[in-house]
Each structure stands twice: as structure tokens, then as C-alpha cells.
Amino acid sequence: MSPKPLALFVKHDGQSARAALTCEYKCGNACFHEPPNTSEGAYFGDIVSGLNRRGLIKGGAAAVLAVGAASALAACGDDSDAAKTPAPTPAGTPGTGTAFTAVAPNKEDALTIPEGYDQQVVIRWGDPIFADAPAFDFEKQTAAAQAKQFGYNNDFAALIPIEGQANGYLLVVNHEYTTGPMMFRGYDKAKPTDEQIAITKAAHGMAVVEVKGEAGSGKLTPVFGKYNRRITAETEFLLTGPAAGSAFTVTSADASGTKVLGTFANCAGGVTPWGTVLSGEENFNGYFANGDLASDPQGRVKRYGFAKGGTPNQWERTDKRFDLSKEPNEANRFGYVVEVNPWDASATPIKHSAMGRLKHEGATIYVTDSGDVVSYTGDDEKFDYMYKFISSRKMQSGTGASAMRHNLTILDAGTLYVAKLTGDHPDKIDGSGAVPSDKGFTGKGQWIPLLETGADGKGKSLVDGMSAAEVAVFTRLAADKVGATKMDRPEDFEANPYTGKVYVALTNNDNRAKDEKVAGVDEANPRKLNKNGQVLELTDNHTGTDFTWSLLLVCGDPAAADTYFAGFDKTKVSPISCPDNLAFDPYGNLWISTDGNALKTNDGLFSVILDGPNRGETKQFLTVPKGAETCGPIVTESHVIVSVQHPGEADDATPDNPQSHWPDGGTSQPRPAVAVVWKKNGGRIGV
Question: Which residue intervals are annotated with compositional bias (Polar residues) in the record (predicted)?
């Protein structure tokens, strides 16, 4: 059957291209609740106005090459002062890697790529990843089958070379959320069957899949390899750090407070230089029912956005741990950075509470020349914060078991910080997005310490009135207390492989300066009712507490007065809206995937030149099918990989009324999938 025209622009919020169905199942309608951050700490504009009035360690390198040679360098750098801008040394002339014809904005039900390139679907929802897994049958799904098949709504992806195999890789993918009405014919949102609930739990989590490259092309073919693994909402995890064993993480099923079943709402992530994969538990609050019935004298439940009544997935109907009125501590065991060793399919994954509990978009690792390990992460919520974790442990080189055991503890010891920013031109920020100076939007910042965790896993609170366990579990409240800067949904962080600068996707915030009850505009968040988002550039003293910053992009329609492309000619850029995930190519160009394009066209993947006369030049490399989100970009010399999430997801979409037939075409049901793009002549991407 032919799909009906898709309502690409959301009628109920006037902001993004997300369907109401996506908002309901992906983030629990976060945009339609008041932002959980109602703290009265001074926001950025108040602070600045007041002031004005008065090197990669060798070893484990194979794992780091996950996104090309440049990525290996992204985990290394120097300790130069924030005031100093490292001289860029990209592998080639600035702009190398962006020589392709930009794809025009569109509303097609296709993965649209530049001329001269080819594409392939690598793996899709339901594809078997074990030899004994059944072939996918949309009409005959079971939880047992789904646990052995590729999960739903793929997000972050990593492509990690297998040592000793010229064309062998591990593809590691997050499965962020499920959408029952799209997955099952005749689905009853008010009362899904027990089996449907079990299937959705099995479709969450992560997947590790061996893939084989094809000489002479960019094709990647999944194989039933020894590393293949599914991690679901029922997989056992080990909780470490100050939250582990505390009064806040003990449940009726786990007196130790350390054994957690499952991970879900896994959004972005990162590959560590020691060969593991990090994943951020983001919209976990949407999985727990009856927040209004939980005791909350200190506002902890409210600050994390737990809603009243039931949840979209209805897991609480078959598992009491998802009912806060019955298991009030279960939710405190989610919202962490998780670490998976993809080289051992039997290894217990870890949840690192030393890095704080929040709606982690992901986590990015940076290793200095002196071997210090630093992680950056964002709390993806309107008016929430940016964080940094500096480990007190250094990485051990080598790929043996001893080195891996040590390196798996790196993120268990160190200091957690939250960011506070000030602007250089506070009197010129009026909410219009007007550029305040010929240098653009600029400022300084500090990292404020919240929590110190020792080698023994015990914590020391650096926030008055809170214990170490409280800071680890209720990190948002700790950050509120120290007056961190309220940002416009900080999502992915990535470090430039050549300059060490750190880039942050700030997706949007239509509540910014909406009224006197919320934070007003400031130089890092310069627009009222921000629909299109911006990209922040940090020049950080990675192991220190000072940094400088600037806005690289203020996104939207280039023809609009409130957009900015690092000073580049706006008539020569592609429109871009709602930046979400970030990646670097081997030449030092930034690549941005989008989520919820407010410009009424399909989401896409964009390259941005960071240095030289074309700094700020933004070009669209691909667009995903209608209704879909672009996730998990990987850009190497020979491959561009994207996760195509929720294709065809629209308010009136059902299996009987599909709004997309991607990726299989014909009259098929839409299926989230990972796709790869390569140059037809076997050449380098963008060269």
C-alpha cells in the first residue's frame, strides 16, 4: 500500500519535526511538562551582568580506531591553558573530506546521499545475530526471538576493528526505546499483552555484532561471530562507585544495592582507548510509573521528571520494580554511564556512579599527553548542565586481561565537575540571536567540583549539605546547589582529534526566556524560544578547571537573522536544525546528525569545516527517510555509517497504515536500521 502524506511538522508543539508518538515513547513527553530544573541558582545572564557591573597512551589502539585514524587522536591531547588555542594540524588542507555535492532538504522516504556514492542496509530491527535465532517475522514476534535478534530504534554506533582481521569489525549499537503502536498490529496502548511487554524489554539495550567488510566496496555484512551479544532490560549489571550499596540503591530484590537488571534509554556513547564501549542512560525516567505516589519530601523524584500515573511501555504492569510506589529505589539504579567490554560476551557490564546520575546523552573520553583520562557528558534536558569527570587512574597499555581489568576501573575513581559559563558581551544579548561582536559569541567558564571518588570506591562530597551517595544519585540537585549554568539541552560531546577542542550539541529549548519563571537568554544560549539549537566549542584545560568557549553554529535557516555559521557566508551553507550527535572524520571536520528538524524537512548528517577561511561551512551529506532521526554517525576514510531511528514514526502511523516502507520497500513495515555509505569508485569520503 502507498503511505499517506506524513505530517512532518508536529502540530501539537509548533517546534520540531518529531511526532507526538515519538515524544511519548522516546522521552515521556518531556517537552510537554514543565522543565524539572526549577532551581533558583543564578543563570548565566544574571552572573555575567553582575560581573560587568562590578596524547594518547599507546596500547588498545585497535579499539580506538573505531571511527577512523583521526578518532584515535581524538582521545589524546595536551594540557595547554584554556586561554591558549592549540594550533590545528589536520591531515590535509582545511576542508579536505567535504568535497561532495550537498544533498538538498527533502521529505523523501529514502536515505538520500550525494551523487557518486552508494549505500547498503547493514542490519535492521529483528535481524538474527545468533545462528540459532529465527528469521524476523513481524506477525509472529516473541520475546525469546527478540533476545537473539537486533533490537529496536538503534542509536549510537561504534565500528571497532578486530585485531588480526583485515576486514573484520565489531559493530556496537544502542537500542534506545521501543514504540509499541509501530511494532505490533492491533496494539492496545492502555493494556499491551504480557508478551508484547516482554518483547519491548528484549528490544531495548545494546547489541554487539561482528561484521565483515567487502574488499573493493564499503559493504558490511553481519556474521554469527563469537563476540555477538544482546544486552537487554533484563541483563545483569554491576553498579560501582559511591551510589553502590547505599541506602538509595537497595531494593527488595537486591539487598546489596549493586546488582542491577538491565539498561534502557541508551542514547549516545563513546569508544574508550582501552577498547570498551560507553553508553548513556538518558530518558530513564519515562520507564517508572506513579512518581506522584512516591515519597518525595526533598523534591528528588520531581527533579528527575518522573511523571504521574502509568508509563507508555506499561512495564509496571508485569514487573513491580518499574512502579515507584512499590520500589522507590529502583529508579535510582538507572541514569548512569554504562561500560561494556565487547571483547567478552560473558562479561558483566558496569554502571559508573562516580560519573553522576542524570539523563546522560553519552560520554566522550579524552586522554591527555600525560595519560590523564577525562570524560565529558551532557544532561539532555531543558535548562540542565554540562559535566566533566577527571579520573585519578591512568590507562594501562596492552590488550591483555590484566590491563583490561585495570582499565575497567578507570571511571570508578576521580572527580566529577559541572560547568559554569560567563559571556564576554552580556549587554548585547537580547534574545534575538544577533551576533554580539565581530568575534561572535564568546566567553569563559569554570568546572565546579561536585564529588571525589577514591580508589576504594568511597566518595567525598564537595557540595555542602549532601553526602557522597546523595551527590552520586541526585547529581542534578548537587549541580543546582553550586549554581551551574542552565543550558539548552546539552547532548553529545566530541573532542577534535587535532586541536583538543571539545564540541557540544545543544539541541534546542523552546522554554528559554518563555516567561519570568524560567531562565532568560545568555551568550551561550542567545535565543528566546530556541527551536533550532546551537553548537558550542570549548577550549578546555582538560585536567584543570578553566576554559574558554565560543558558539560555532547558531542553527536554523541560513536566511534567518538569528543564525550564525562561525562567520561564514550564510548563502553558501545547508540549513541545519536541532544538532544531536557529533563525530569527527580523519581530517578534523566535525559531522553533526540532527533530531527533530524544526525546518519541516527530513533530519540529516552534515559536515562542518572548523579551520581556515571556510570555517563554519556546513554541508548536508545525507538525509534519512521521513519520520526518522539521524543517529550514531561514524565517518572514516571509506565509510559513513548512520543509525536510522524510528522511520515513518507519525501520529497516525500503525502497521495497518504505515507511513514509511524503508528500508525494505514495497508494502513492508518500516524497520529501524543501521546503514553504510561509501564512494562508488572506492575512493575516500569527501575527497
Answer: 656-670
Q: Three-state SS string across 497-531, please?
A: CCCCCEEEEECCECCCCCCCCCCCCCCCCCECCEC
Comparing CA positions, the residue from 185, 203, 188, 184 lying closest to residue 144 is: 203
Q: Maximum Cα–Cα distance for the chain, whole Å?
A: 70
Where is 321: in which H helix or E strand? none
Cα–Cα distance for residue pair 331/354, rounded to 1 Å:
17
- Alpha carbon distance 362, 359 (integer Å): 9
- The pLDDT tens digits for 70-128 are 333 344 454 433 433 333 344 557 789 999 999 999 999 999 999 999 999 999 999 99
Give residue-wise pLDDT tens across range 413-434: 999 999 999 999 999 999 999 9
Instruction: Output the nine-digit C-alpha cell for 512.
Output: 528559554
pLDDT tens-digit readout, 502-547 = 999 999 999 999 999 999 999 999 999 999 999 999 999 999 999 9
- Give the pTM: 0.92
Q: Which residues contact 225 (CB under 8 A, 6 or more apart)?
A: 209, 210
Quick check: 582 and 482 in contact, CB under 8 A? no
Any alpha helices (H) in 142-237, and if so which ranges?
143-146, 180-183, 194-203
Other residues' Cβ atoms within 10 Å of the Cβ of residue 310 = 16
Output the CA–CA distances (angstroms, integers) from residue 299 to 295, 336, 462, 485, 564, in the order listed: 9, 20, 20, 20, 39
- CA distance linking residue 363 with residue 276, whole number of Å: 12
Task: Give the DSSP letter of residue 461.
Answer: E
350-352 vs 236-240, strand pairing mode: parallel
CA-CA distance, 78 to 670, in Å (whole number)?
Answer: 46
Nearest to 607 by CA among 597, 595, 621: 621
Per-residue pLDDT, 64: 39
